[in-house]
Write a sequence for this structure.
């Protein structure tokens, strides 16, 4: 799959309901991106917050995420209480710069191309990073996460498989096709924009069918 490297793509897992260390990060990294950032459009009136940016081997900003709604945490049943406790309601939008294969400036190697699959992969991993299946023991979660991460990689590599369906959502007001899938942990989607970036998203507690995406006019509003 033509995508950004899996190295560094996983967000650090938190235990016991702790918030992620990248939540409320500063806006500095986002301002270095040579591409526009995407978030939910103005129809969403809830909280907005920064997550993290990802960089390539040469230090260029390649992708990043913006959050909407409740800040997700990872909790197991021993901490969160009843399994029937309402899940957090959030949607995270992942913006990925679109570019072909290119060589590093120092000539030591090359960077892989990005594609819609890149956005699908990052969104899938993002959802897993904030998931802790009910009744799973702490010692087993790392093995589960590794296995599910590989599955997310395989799914993102074949967006034409039966695991995905097509969903049309507005992007800057224009109906845009997205690849979409659901699981017991939440939903994931991915597509491309007219602004030369790929957009992925994942969430829980918020229906993907009612979402719309738009260029973020002022990323500082998320800080």
């Amino acid at each position: 799959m033509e995508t950004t490297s899996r190295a560094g793509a996983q967000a650090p897992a938190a235990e016991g309901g702790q918030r992620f260390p990248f939540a409320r990060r500063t806006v500095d990294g986002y301002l270095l991106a040579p591409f526009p950032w995407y978030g939910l459009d103005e129809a969403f009136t809830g909280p907005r917050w920064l997550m993290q940016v990802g960089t390539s081997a040469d230090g260029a900003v390649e992708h990043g995420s913006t959050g909407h709604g409740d800040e997700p945490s990872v909790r197991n049943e021993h901490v969160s209480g009843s399994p029937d406790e309402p899940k957090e309601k959030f949607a995270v939008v992942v913006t990925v710069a679109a570019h072909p294969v290119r060589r590093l400036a120092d000539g030591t190697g090359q960077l892989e191309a990005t594609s819609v699959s890149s956005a699908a992969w990052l969104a899938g991993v993002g959802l897993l990073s904030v998931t802790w299946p009910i009744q799973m023991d702490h010692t087993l979660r790392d093995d589960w996460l590794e296995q599910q991460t590989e599955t997310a990689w395989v799914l993102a590599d074949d967006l034409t498989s039966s695991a995905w369906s097509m969903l049309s959502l507005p992007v800057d007001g224009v109906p845009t096709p997205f690849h979409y899938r659901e699981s017991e942990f939440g939903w994931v989607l991915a597509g491309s924009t007219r602004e030369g970036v790929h957009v992925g998203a994942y969430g829980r507690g918020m229906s993907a069918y009612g979402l719309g995406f738009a260029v973020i006019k002022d990323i500082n509003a998320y800080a």
About this structure: The helical segments are 28-31, 77-80, 116-129, 138-157.
